[in-house]
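Predict fold of SDR family NAD(P)-dependent oxidoreductase; 251 aa.
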Amino acid sequence: MHDFDLSGKRALITGGGSGLGLAVARAFAEYGAEVIIAGRRADVLDAAAADIGGNVRTIVCDLAQLDMIPDLVDGIESAYGPLDVLVNNAGIHLKKDALDVTDTEFETVLRTNLQAVFALSREAARRMTERRSGSIIMISSMAAKYGIPKVIAYTAAKAAVEGMTKAMAVEWSARGVRINCIAPGFIETDMSAKALNNDPDRKNRVLGRTPMQQLGKPKDVALAAVFLASAAAGFITGTSLAVDGGNSIGF
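Predicted 3D structure, encoded as tokens:
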């Protein structure tokens, strides 16, 4: 178990107040990491920190304000110490027919889901490469694996994140920083459960192409993140790990 231990590591998890981000934050804390969760709503972050317990810090920020990101990372490292792990989980969604998506809507989704991910990864990597140690974990989606209707901007962002993972790994791995990606399948959260339960046809299609015939749990994604952040994944970089019950290869 020592190889999976995150004791002594400091991790920043964006969007860590709810959903998958909260599950990742909880798992990191359980495996010994000092956890910093970032998000836009103080009340959500405070509730998450109380729920997790232990050594959890909160940072209120809007990652869409790209020019604030360098100061954000500086402030975190000055206040709490060097970051060992960054989990780029924060994101926004837009469900709309592609023909109806405006340029402004498209840009808004890419700003948070892609540009902010790049800017935060770049600023974290500046410091990690100097220390020759670090792990950056991206969160992708099945939307990057195959076509899903009504999510054109989200799909564009997640496909780009997977490509960016490879490019960053090629540039930074020799300098001690591993970059990997997790592509969650259909995971049982409050939001997804409500959506699928209200649309039986969609739920049947989801389960029909998932060989394991069930939805995943948030902890499935969280434990994959623990693995990728740990010494157990020390020779893994530039990869995208589908945590999807086989959905991405199902028929």
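The chain is about 45% helix and 15% strand.
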